[in-house]
Amino acid sequence: MSQENILAVNNLSTEFDIDTGTVRVLDNVGFNVPQGKTLGIVGESGCGKSVTAMSIMGLLPHPYGRVAGGEILYQGQDLTQLSTEDMFKIRGNSISMIFQEPMTALNPVHTIGRQLMESYRLHRPEFDAKAREQAAISMLKKVGIPSPEKRMENFPHQLSGGMRQRVMIAMALACEPDLLICDEPTTALDVTIQAQILELMQELQKDNGMSIIFITHDLGVVAEICDEVVVMYAGRVAEQAHAIDLFESPRHPYTQGLLKSIPRLEDTPKTILPVIEGFVPSLQQMPAGCRFQNRCPKADDQCTNVPALEMVEKAETNSDFPHKAACWYKQPEAIPSSNI
């Protein structure tokens, strides 16, 4: 693994046991997270974004979920081979996660202060009770919560959605992690609060130098904060590239369809937006070969074979990130820049 990458996910496969047998949710997923950069993971609901995050964090439900193959290298150390005790030392300390819905992620019967101080109790044993309290107050202040001393005594239901999300960010950053995983942290927020949260995360990343994996289905957010983007479909990586390359010259038909479906300012009002026809097949009924073939306008007999994730010619940018696509027909397609 390059020293410039803090995390390398190689050929990751994750399986779940269900009533009818075993299904593979992730199939040979791979990507790198550069030091100090933001990697976006995008795709439709059910494509495997959150399962990827849970696999990295070692939070798959046991015994039903497990990593069936591949490796997750954090600073050269394979997380899939660590004991429960060793993974506990990394989780929340070196690698933290912000979950999708703060109201369900926060414990409703404990105060904000108690939940935040727990991070220090678990990972900073040298802190006494007073030091934990002061560190928690300082962290709340850093994420922009007014009157942090008073908020320490509040319960989650007493805070707004934006405030709860800031508390989740404070908890995730309490131990100054090297890598922060954000699982759609702005989905339930209005656009004004969303902009504030994204700006806050960018500021904290600049101050701490941490890397971020940002999971979302909002390509507008991706364009704003991400350096590199991984597009997932049905448990596989369809395309990955620098954000500018992806938006200027998408190569996979699925990526092209996603970008076309975004409203543009010059569109005629009240006209029907382009859509990707069909539905994502169920995990038990995935087609052989390319999993997008039943919805792809370019599909033919060749698509019954699995396409490799291969390098393609990059757009005219100075980025160091490779541009890869898993498709037999990787023709570039220009998408109007005003889409984003």
Question: Could you characterize the architecture of this molecule?
Answer:
This protein is about 30% helix and about 20% strand. By secondary structure, the chain is of the alpha/beta class. The chain is globular. The protein has 11 helices and 12 strands. An 8-stranded mixed β-sheet has the order 6-7-8-3-9-10-12-11, sandwiched between helices. A 4-stranded antiparallel β-sheet has the order 2-1-4-5, covered by helices on one side.
Sequence-ordered SSE layout with sheet pairings:
Layout: E1 5-18, E2 21-34, E3 38-42, H1 49-57, E4 65-74, E5 77-78, H2 84-90, E6 95-98, H3 102-105, H4 112-123, H5 129-142, H6 148-151, H7 161-173, E7 179-183, H8 191-208, E8 211-215, H9 219-225, E9 228-233, E10 236-242, H10 243-248, H11 253-260, E11 310-311, E12 324-325
Parallel strand pairs: 3-8, 3-9, 6-7, 7-8
Antiparallel strand pairs: 1-2, 1-4, 4-5, 9-10, 10-12, 11-12
Helix pairs in contact: 4-5, 4-7, 5-7, 7-8
